[in-house]
Amino acid sequence: MKFKLMCFVLSIIATQTINTQVKTKVKVVAELDIRPGNVAISKNNRVFMTVHPLGSPKVQLIEITGKKTYTVFPNKELQNNTGKPNDSKFDTPLGLRIDKDNVLWVIDMGLHLGKTRLWAFDINTGKEVYKYEFTKEIAPKGSFIQDLAIDKENGWVYLADIANPGIIAFNIKNKTARRFSDLTVQSENIDMVIDKKTINFGGKPARVAVNPITLSYDNKTLYYGAMNGTTWYQIPSKLFREGATDLVISKAIKVKGPKPISDGVATDKKGNHYMTNLQHGGIDVLTSTGELKPILRNSKIDWADNVALNNNGWIYIAVNQLYKTPAFTGGEDTGKAPYYILKSFVGN
Hints:
The protein has 348 residues and is mainly beta. It has helices at 2-15, 238-241, 246-252, 326-329; strands at residues 27-32, 36-41, 47-51, 61-66, 69-72, 93-98, 103-108, 117-122, 128-133, 145-151, 156-161, 166-171, 176-180, 193-194, 197-198, 200-201, 204-205, 210-215, 221-226, 231-236, 254-258, 265-267, 273-277, 282-286, 292-297, 304-309, 314-319, 339-345. The protein has one domain (23-345): Neuraminidase.
């Protein structure tokens, strides 16, 4: 009887832990001739995707409708197919998140327009429900604000800027923002190496600052790290909401654990962090206990830009060969279609 009870308990424990065995199989959600930027998944598994601005796209935001099909979202009028800056259209959107109310939030970096704008859309109607243009003080021209985390309950958005390294905390209701910066948002002095080659960005070895940014499920903790960085940090998010000084926030920062050189991260309900591993073509997980493990490696994962989790234990991966664009190569675009949205089961 004791033996049976012990086996039962162990089986319960096993179902509550992550399967950290390294997997190689993925399912192809979409196989595209355009570069994905970020991917987001709704509660009923609708798949939305920005088209990466470094690929000079004619459309900027789409919904995947089949393995090789998509439709523009929310409508064709917002897509800029001329490449000319336009106040009434998308410019260079990249970061993408769906909140707990099924509202799609998009950060438009405005690389051509010179204005950073935050958009939100009801995915059921396609109606624009929020739009804000950041001031020049918060997002000066030349900013590259490209990842975001949404706290709908408290009415805040947190954004990462890699060009003027910093975290922007934005109050949705009051439409006020502040910028925070210290050494933890800077790039580490570490090379990114893919296929035994050091990757350049802007003509020199890449040193990309704060990029992935996420929130805990209860919104109490903000997590972030540099792309060219091996440390994942955490801050109590209430410090931003309560208007704490930069000094107070800096002193409250703690190391959550190690990370690979990564472009995107998704944090689940249990506090596990799923991180793209740019150098090794896969996904790693930093468990809630602080252990970093590889969980997925696949030859199709050629620069995983970001990841998104659904409610059924699947991780969706936007793959775009970004390091082959002219911004990295300094010359021609050496990327070759197809580009992918992939998914893999990582457990509930």
